[in-house]
């Protein structure tokens, strides 16, 4: 993938906003400092960054995908109340791929694990 100033700007925005933002959220931030940014260009850059493995696309929340600059192995927790997405260290389910392959005979090439429930703040409110 060739260098692109806008693509680098998208990456920088993701690094500075570790809330697992949607494309619309990223667009709102970027358009404040660069009025030439279009939503179509942003989506194209997000797709290219995802396909190249430089960012992760998180599906499974609302109708919009969320994006993560952290490409290290980790899982996600989505709070059903506040809709925030949290990173979960991969070591909470050590050997999940190996164990799954051994039990099923499948060859796992990639995986995403998403937990759903209540975050600590919402758990306190819902008691």
Could you give a short description of this structure?
This protein has 127 residues and is α+β, with helices and mostly antiparallel strands.
Shape: flat
Order of helices and strands: HHHEEEEHEH
Strand ordering within the main sheet: 4-3-5
* Contiguous uncertain segments of 5+ residues: none
* Fraction of residues in helix: 40-55%
- Counted up, domains total 2
Q: Give the radius of gyration.
A: 17 Å
CATH topology grouping of the largest domain:
Arc Repressor Mutant, subunit A
Q: Quaternary state, please? A: single chain
Summed up, the helix count is: 5
* Biggest sheet descriptor: 3 strands, mixed
Kindly list the characteristics that best describe this protein:
5 strands, Arc Repressor Mutant, subunit A, 127 residues, alpha+beta, three-stranded mixed beta sheet, Dna Ligase, domain 1, single chain, two-stranded antiparallel sheet, 2 domains
């Amino acid at each position: 993938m060739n260098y692109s100033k806008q693509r680098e700007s998208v990456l920088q925005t993701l690094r500075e906003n570790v809330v697992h933002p949607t494309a619309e959220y990223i667009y709102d931030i970027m358009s404040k400092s660069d009025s030439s940014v279009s939503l179509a260009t942003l989506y194209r850059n997000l797709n290219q960054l995802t396909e190249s493995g430089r960012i992760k696309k998180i599906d499974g929340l609302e109708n919009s995908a969320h994006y993560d600059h952290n490409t290290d192995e980790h899982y996600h927790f989505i709070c059903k109340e506040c809709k925030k997405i949290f990173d979960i260290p991969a070591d909470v389910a050590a050997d999940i791929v190996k164990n799954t392959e051994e039990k099923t005979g499948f060859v796992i090439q990639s995986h995403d694990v998403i937990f759903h429930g209540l975050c600590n703040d919402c758990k306190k409110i819902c008691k």
